[in-house]
Amino acid sequence: MKKIKELLREKGNEVCSIDPDASVFDAITLMAEKNIGALLVMRENQVVGVISERDYARKVTLENHASRDTKVAQIMSDKVIYAEPSETVEECMALMTDKHIRHLPVMQNNELLGLVSIGDLVKAVIAEQKFMIEQLEHYISGGV
To answer: 23-72: per-residue pLDDT in tens?
Structure first.
């Protein structure tokens, strides 16, 4: 099974982030511009939280708060669950499923290396399965 460090090497390690004092409106605008579902919340190069579309829907929209007046820090998830680059795609999928999260920062020695989404992991699993099927078909057909 592929390691997260290999996945990051393939997809890149660009991470979109926002300051906890920014408005939720700015966060949602950035997510829309980048076509992503979550942002890391960072202060002085340290991950302090994650804000997602789900946070917005549940903590702003449903509670009738104004997104321009609400700070990211007020609605972000501040208990950040992360992966290490040595973990496998399968281990990260299990962690994300268990914790009901869709985005997972990748950290090593308190340094942010990247971010993976559940979509990234699913794509990796599908690609690996496709490769395995092709190899088995090649083997069964006698390598012709």
So the answer is: 999 999 999 999 999 999 999 989 999 999 999 999 988 888 889 999 99
Residue spans of beta strands (DSSP E) within the chain: 17-18, 38-43, 46-52, 103-108, 111-117
Residues paired with residue 43 on neighbouring β-strands, in sequence order: 46
Number of domains in the chain: 1
Question: Domain span at residue 91?
Answer: 4-140
Percent of the chain with pLDDT strictly greater than 90: 75
CA-to-CA separations, 71 to 33, 126, 130, in angstroms, rounded: 19, 38, 44
Chain-centre distance for alpha carbon 97: 13
Q: Collapse the DSSP code of 16 into the 3-class scheme (helix H, G, I; strand E, B; otherwise coil) and give the result.
A: coil
The SS3 assignment for 77 reads strand
| pLDDT of 93 above 70 | yes
Closest CA to 18 of 7, 32, 8: 32
Report the predicted TM-score, pTM, of the whole model to 2 decimal places: 0.84
